[in-house]
Design goal:
The chain has helices at about 40-50, 115-120, 120-135, 150-165, 175-185, 195-205, 220-225, 250-255, 265-270, 275-290, 305-315, and strands at about 1-5, 15-20, 30-40, 65-75, 85-90, 100, 105-110, 145, 165-170, 190, 210-215, 235, 260, 295-300, 320-325. With about 325 residues, the protein is of the alpha/beta class. This is NADPH:quinone oxidoreductase family protein.
């Protein structure tokens, strides 16, 4: 038997049920993974509230991202064996004790990759690397503004931009979050909950503005940042954690010779799987070399998923919340 959080009524966290299920049977091309840890991502909340663009058939087990140990290998699978440590980003299935994973979506973990870190790795680091290095073609010496810098993708973006040789300005909603971003390597930080984002950027860049804006926040911050962008700057549209999708005056792009660049790592992974696989292996090596390391806000037992969602809703999270079957 396995245990999992089951969603049979996507009306919110209170409708989830922690219950026993039959151990899933491995099909062709699949791995059965004993989950050791899973992390929370913003889509996990949207999907159980029926607000996400992907609506899985009911009932389903939520949990987009997890890590664990291969228990069983399905027919036609090469390159994996029972006992291998893997991480996966599958959209659903992670908030439980076992999951079926298409072998093509499993990332082999190098020795020494902690399960809690691996569970918080794929989504944030793949998104941030694809955004900064592929879509923005970030160059050493450029200045990157990271909005929502204390969140999961934000902390990953700080680390990746610094590894690429960029100057990083972190923007977050409190002094505590700003301090944490500085500890992670940001060169400067702006508390946009208190200070004017535009005035602070003008001071920190001598009026030039940031070359790249990493924006997972949306809302009113997007226009403030875009109005401050440097000549030939690139504004990365990563997400809308604030809730509102902004309407930007396109004349600003004309006046600054600037680009609005969409970032959709999930679609990139589907359309360009070989490039995505190469990127993920490179990121795993960066982890092994100590260049990047997921920032974990807290680690809770898997059975405490409602408490984890409550923590996410508090807006006090720095990094990622992880649920563990090892506690």
């Amino acid at each position: 038997m396995s245990k999992a959080w089951l969603c049979d009524n996507p009306s919110g966290v209170s409708a989830l049920k922690w219950q026993e299920l039959e151990l899933p049977a491995t099909g062709p091309g699949q791995l059965r993974v004993a989950i050791k840890a899973a992390s929370l991502n913003f889509p996990d909340l949207l999907i159980i509230e029926n607000k996400y663009q992907i609506k899985p058939p009911l009932p389903f087990v939520p949990g987009t991202e997890f890590a664990g140990v291969v228990e069983e290998v399905g027919e036609g699978v090469n390159g994996f064996k029972p006992g291998d440590s893997v991480a996966a980003f599958t959209g659903t299935g992670g908030f439980g004790s076992h999951a079926l994973v298409p072998a093509a979506l499993a990332l082999p973990l190098p020795a020494g990759f902690a399960f809690e870190d691996a569970a918080a790795f794929i989504c944030t680091y793949a998104t941030s690397h694809h955004a900064l290095m592929d879509r923005a073609t970030l160059q050493a010496g450029e200045t990157v503004l990271v909005l929502g810098a204390a969140g999961g993708v934000g902390t990953a973006a700080i680390q990746i931009a610094k590894a690429a040789g960029a100057r990083v300005i972190a923007a977050a909603s409190s002094d505590e979050k700003c301090q944490r971003c500085l500890e992670l390597g940001a060169d400067a930080a702006i508390n946009y909950g208190r200070d004017s984002l535009r005035d602070a950027l003008k001071t920190l860049t001598d009026g030039r503005g940031p070359d790249v804006i990493y924006d997972p926040v949306g809302g009113d911050l997007s226009e403030q940042a875009f109005r401050s962008i440097a000549w030939r700057g690139r504004h990365l549209v990563v997400g809308f954690a604030q809730g509102n999708i902004p309407s930007l005056p396109l004349n600003l792009a004309l006046l600054k010779g600037a680009s609005l660049v969409g970032v959709f790592w999930g679609e990139f992974a589907k359309r360009e799987p070989q490039l995505n696989a190469a990127m993920m292996m490179a990121l795993a090596q960066w982890y092994a070399q100590g260049k990047v390391k997921p920032v974990l806000d807290c680690v809770l037992p898997m059975s405490q998923l409602p408490a984890a969602f409550a923590r996410m809703a508090s807006r006090q999270v720095v990094g990622k919340i992880v649920l563990s079957n090892l506690l």
